[in-house]
Design brief:
binds zinc ion, ROK family protein, 9 helices, alpha/beta, 5-stranded mixed beta sheet, Nucleotidyltransferase, domain 5, 2 domains
């Protein structure tokens, strides 16, 4: 069976895996990113990961990384998560160390590609993927055009649509971005606004039965997500929205409230399916594997 290597460079971990033609993970390897040590150290860790997994039957390598990515050339146009990453031709840099082709794309796009290939989005001709984690990632897919990149590789930044004018300050310097209200990390911000206390998301979830403010903080997030989904519907009219990211683990506590909010706020809520993603931690390596298969 044909195989490739998929690599997902996250802020804290580099996940790598041998991916088979059917989308299954044959073998995997994880190492800390140590992003603060800068680009040369991260490149070394990527090459080490490849050397742990490579065999003669591996055809190519796909890499998922955050930021604005020129996927045609493998260049990181802008990324804020690893020092020295902006401007790097990651494809050329890794190809110096291996004899097989290397391909690079944005991590949110590749998570969506994993869902399209073997996950929740298989049957859809077009869909939007939202990743609710520390931030709010977005991908726009249509099988006629592939992923929407925009004119400067800055398209599909769905987390930075303004929901509340002059609202919470975002890491992108805009105020009121959706990322500050409907990312996984927004639960802590909502709770702090109510109580002045800093608690992590899981701690707030644990308090749901005993703490009214925990309930209110989560309810606000769910209602905001419903409002946000109605904007997504009106702009894109997709067959489906797939919601992934670490926060989806807690969906039993907020899913119904979010769907009810969407139905309440959207002018025409019918016709857009809303589904949880199939993959969490493995989405990046599987999507990177699919990229590696598609490009050769
Ligand atoms: Zn923003």
């Amino acid at each position: 069976m044909k195989k490739v290597i998929g690599i997902d460079i996250g802020g804290t971990k580099i996940n790598s895996a041998v991916i088979a033609e059917d989308g299954s993970i044959v073998e995997s390897y994880t190492v800390a990113t140590e992003a603060h040590l800068g680009r040369d150290e991260v490149i070394k860790r990527i090459v080490d990961s490849i050397n742990k997994l490579i065999t003669p039957e591996i055809l190519s390598i796909g890499i998922a990384t955050a930021g604005f990515i020129d996927s045609d050339n493998g260049i990181i146009v802008f990324a804020g998560n690893i020092e020295g990453w902006t401007g790097l031709n990651l494809k050329e840099e890794i190809e110096k160390h291996v004899d097989i082709p290397v391909f690079v794309d944005n991590d949110a796009n590749l998570a969506a590609l994993a869902e399209k290939w073997v996950g929740s989005a298989q049957k859809y001709k077009n869909f939007i993927m939202l990743t609710m984690g520390t931030g709010l990632g977005g991908a726009i897919y249509d099988e006629r055009i592939g992923f929407w990149q925009g004119s400067h590789y800055q398209g599909a930044e769905l987390g930075h649509m303004v929901m509340y004018p002059n609202g919470r300050l975002c890491t992108c310097n805009q105020k009121g971005c959706a990322e500050k209200y409907v990312a996984g990390s927004s639960l802590s911000i909502n709770y702090k606004e109510l109580t002045g206390m800093d608690l992590r998301g899981p701690e707030i979830i644990e308090r749901l039965n005993t703490d009214d403010n925990a309930k209110k903080a989560l309810k606000k997030l769910a209602i905001d997500l419903g409002v946000y989904l109605s904007t997504i519907k009106n702009i894109f009219d997709p067959e489906a929205v797939i919601i992934g990211g670490g926060f989806i683990n807690t969906s039993t506590y907020w899913w119904d409230d979010a769907i009810n909010s969407y139905k309440e706020y959207c002018n025409r809520p019918v016709g857009m399916e809303i589904k949880p993603a199939e993959f969490l931690n493995d989405a990046g390596v599987i999507g990177a594997g699919k990229l590696a298969f598609d490009k050769i």
